[in-house]
From TrEMBL:
An annotated GO cellular component: cytoplasm
All copies of domain Lipoyl-binding, residue ranges: 6-81
Necessary cofactors: (R)-lipoate
The protein, known as: Lipoyl-binding domain-containing protein
Record-linked Pfam families: Biotin_lipoyl
Quaternary state and interactors: Forms a 24-polypeptide structural core with octahedral symmetry.
InterPro entries, per database record: 2-oxoacid_DH_E2_comp (IPR050743), Biotin_lipoyl (IPR000089), Single_hybrid_motif (IPR011053)
CDD domains on file: lipoyl_domain
Organism from which the protein derives: Leptospira tipperaryensis
Taxonomic lineage from the root: Bacteria, Pseudomonadati, Spirochaetota, Spirochaetia, Leptospirales
PROSITE patterns: BIOTINYL_LIPOYL
Keywords: Acyltransferase, Transferase
Amino acid sequence: MKPKSGIFELITPDLGDTDKIELVHWNSKLGDSVSPGQEILELVTDKACFPMESPVKGKLTQIIKEKGSIVRKGDVLGILELFESE
């Protein structure tokens, strides 16, 4: 069951055995509403590009890692403010 309100941290997923993960593009900007399944950002390793989808309905309220940042598994990339369930 999803929370009715609060925040959700966008976390760098486990992309396998790689030393370098780069955040190459934010598809959403601050204040944008997002829906489950919507591509929010793109991560690239030396092997592939990985679009990251929103798992929740909410609004992007904070970008913690900017485009071009090198990130690791578990890093917080951004914060979503959850929308209340209808």
